[in-house]
Amino acid sequence: MSDDQTHSGTCFCGAVEVTVTGSPAAMGYCHCTSCREWSAGPVNAFSLWDPKAVKITKGADKVASYQRSDTSIRKWCTVCGGHILTEHPTWGVTDVYAAVLPDMPFTPGLHVNYQETVLHITDGLPKLKDMPKEMGGSGEMVAE
Ligand SMILES: [Zn+2]
Ligand SMILES: [Zn+2]
């Protein structure tokens, strides 16, 4: 992949557009309760980016934020309620939901927070009990 490659996507109504440039630092699935409760879905497919690679290219005035903890600032469209991204300032990455970037090839590398799963996925990928060590987790693996 070229570093100049860009992918764009929008919220549910199209009022907000986000564009990412380059390659994600990581892609995978998060099974944590926070992702589940906020997304109203069983699993969150994530792509993690250098915050500098992520730009709101349309409708920035329609983006709202909610921050419950130091680790996550969740952003969505105030017109449709569609989710766009979560900033993780303490980890130095921004999660642009894979489903928001339809033309980005999604090649997941791992599952995180699998101890909280409600939807087991037997795809042979590594399953981390919580988070990688470098992100403050145990780095421990669990069975599918
Ligand atoms: Zn919208
Ligand atoms: Zn999560």
Describe this structure as you would to a colleague.
There is one protein chain. The protein has 144 residues and is mainly beta. 5% of the residues lie in helices and 37% in strands. It has one helix at residues 33-39; strands at residues 6-10, 17-21, 26-30, 44-49, 54-58, 63-69, 72-77, 83-88, 93-97, 110-112. The strands form two sheets. Strands 6-7-8-9-4-3-10 form a seven-stranded mixed sheet. It starts with 5 loop residues before the first strand and ends in a 32-residue tail after the last strand. Bound molecules: zinc ion (2 copies).
Helical proportion, percent range = under 10%
| Helix run count | 1
Distance between the termini: 30 Å
User: What is the percentage of strand-forming residues?
Assistant: 35-45%
The unreliable regions are none
Order of helices and strands: EEEHEEEEEEE
What general form does the structure show?
globular
Strand order of the largest sheet: 6-7-8-9-4-3-10
Described by strand count, sense and barrel closure, the largest sheet is: 7 strands, mixed
CA radius of gyration: 15 Å
Name the hetero compounds present. Answer: zinc ion
Average pLDDT over all residues? 96
The beta-strand count equals 10
Structural class: mainly beta
